[in-house]
Amino acid sequence: MSAIREAYLQAALSAAALVGDPAVAAAWAGPSALAGFTVAGLAGHLAAQVVNVPKVLRAPAPDGPPVALADHYSRVRWIGADLDADVNVQIRAGGEAVAVGGPAALAEQTGQAVRELRTLLAEEPPDRLVSPPAGPWAMTLDDFLVTRLMELAVHGDDLAYSVGLPTPDQPPAVLGPVLALLSELAVRRHGQAAVLRALTRAERAPASISAF
Fold first, then answer.
1. Phi then psi for 31, rounded to 5 degrees?
2. How far lies 105's CA from each of 16, 23, 24, 166, in Å?
3. pTM for the predicted model, two decimal places
4. pLDDT tens digits, one per residue of 174-205
5. Radius of gyration from C-alpha coordinates of the chain
6. Quick one: how far is CA 101 from the chain centroid?
């Protein structure tokens, strides 16, 4: 199994543990740190980065050629969309739907998906193509899993912050690909100099730097 697939499984297991934390259950119906998301909806959105992957793998492989990882983000509709745009309303509704059974059921569902994915990911060939939910374009499976790593890391922080928990520490195998992706996207958006200054020269850096 590739290093990316192993890293994804680590991050997915961490997400299952976070979703099942008692602090999440205690704040379940309240607002999260993300505008428009309840804690339940945010937990569901986090879990969806795991529980939806078996569905992606069971779908027929799309025709290629695959788009590059960063180019995937040139095509998704949610980047730059208003909070109440249809795509963002659908994302929030999707999170609520995944979480409808409550925190314990969501944690169990996520853990079960991780166990299933240990087998499924090991069986997939290195050149497997998938169609991401944001598609209909093709991506390599490992590139798609990097997009899920980013979602798990970012929304894991969102959920932990929302309920007063420490953000889960991710191992280098998880954090490395996430930071590489976010850095590449930030450079595309702001240019090399702006990103270098944000990381090393705060006195010359732009007021804000983000990948999206």
1. -75, 150
2. 11, 15, 13, 23
3. 0.93
4. 999 999 999 999 998 899 999 999 989 988 87
5. 17
6. 21
